[in-house]
Amino acid sequence: MGRAGFLLLYLPMSMLCVCAVVAAQAPLDPIASYRTWKKVNAKPIYMEPAVAAACLPRPIAVSSKDNPHVPTYFTVYVNATGERAMLSSEPVKLPAGSIVVKEKRVGSPDAKVKLLTVLIKRQRGYATANGDWQYLVVDGTDLSHRTTDHLEHCKSCHAEQKKDDYLFRDYLPGRVGTSR
Predict the structure, then answer these.
(1) Where are the beta strands (DSSP E) in the chain?
(2) Closest Cα partner for 133 from 150, 114, 118, 146?
(3) Using alpha carbons only, what angle is made at residue 175 by residues 170 and 180, rounded to the nearest 5 degrees?
(4) What is the pLDDT of residues 94-118, one digit of tens each?
(5) Are 170 and 150 in contact (CB under 8 A)?
(6) What average pLDDT does this structure show over 161-171?
(7) 121 forms bridges with which residues in the sheet?
(8) Best exposed site among 21, 126, 141, 174 by fewest CB in 10 Å?
(9) Rounded to two decimals, what is the model's pTM?
(10) pLDDT at site 11
(11) Is 135 helix (H, G, I), strand (E, B) or coil?
């Protein structure tokens, strides 16, 4: 085989290898790019201490009047699949593939993200008792650290909002404070 034949064979194979490496490094995580999604509330919203405590991977009982913890603020993002339904002023059902991320900051609205709570709408039949939502709690500083364990309290709290597809959407413009 001459030099031209070698190059014709070698170059396409080397490009294939480069493409395979790039594809292997591309984020496959469905929430990795959540900050490019629709930001539902323009600025972080203060979260009541009792609600913030209940939204931990293992909830703790906290009285809102004597809360020893620092304030918590949240911002909600929704992917393109769920955006239209999420922003509706009417009770809705988000389509399968919708992802809602609640980003939580502790101390101030400008603090680093401490925790993400994530809802992923799965196909019908995934979890009919809670509207086919999958619940995740994710470390805000390392998206690879997450849990789906011990989240029954999330499901039981969100069950209050069955009429609105298990979502508390009181952070939408014009609806602040209407769900709780």
Answers:
(1) 38-39, 45-47, 72-78, 99-106, 113-121, 133-139, 146-147
(2) 118
(3) 40
(4) 999 999 999 999 889 999 999 899 9
(5) no
(6) 91
(7) 133
(8) 174
(9) 0.75
(10) 39
(11) strand
